[in-house]
Amino acid sequence: MTQKHSYRLQLATAGALSIAMLGGFLAPASAEAALVTGSVGISIDNAALAAVTGGWRIDSFFDASYNQIAITADTVGGIASAIDMTLAINTNLTTVSYAAVNRTLQATTMEVGNTASGQIGLSGGMRMSVPGTSSGSLTPYDFRLQKIGGVWNLVTYDQFFSGTTFLQLTNASETVNAGGELTLSGDLIFGSGSNKYPSPFGLTWGSFLGISATDTVVGSLSMNLPAAVPVPTAVWLFGSGLIGLVGATRRKNLAV
Hints:
alpha+beta; eight-stranded antiparallel beta sheet
């Protein structure tokens, strides 16, 4: 009798261990601080932009493949109209410098649960010009999204302006969804940020472009969440096998 009782105890322990393993394998991990991921979509209203800047408009957009290239008036590529752009959110935790071409890959350090600190690095660049003139070009690129004074700023590391605010978000909406992911959207204006946070040269976008109306909406921004990653079939088969093993152990235990 003592032997049978001991045998049942061993089987029960094995069954409990299997259940614990299954729970640890399939259950979601406990909520921990996570960095912002995904991509950011930016749409520019070039007519509105030109109306408040004396004719400046976005003439090209360059995606992440141009991160290590010095974008100039002669750089070929990108989207000619540059109306709709997608900027990938960087995964590097520290800012990377490409000194040879005066470029940087801004780090992403902002946690989804705390948007008051840190930043969201974005890959991609734009080129601005005034069509039909010899005004040259401006190249806002190496972006980061950052809250400054409670307001979302789209900061650029332009080769001329260095690091300074390019555009700001207004009518911003930010939430954290059930999956623990930050969602963000809003309208883009030059705002007060265009005349603040000057570059080392003492210049701001507002002073250089002669912006006539800082509150005019010139575009929109929305954060696109990363695509859901499906759980491989093998994981579910493995989980089902563990459940079957636990069931078989319990049946054998009752038969003893």
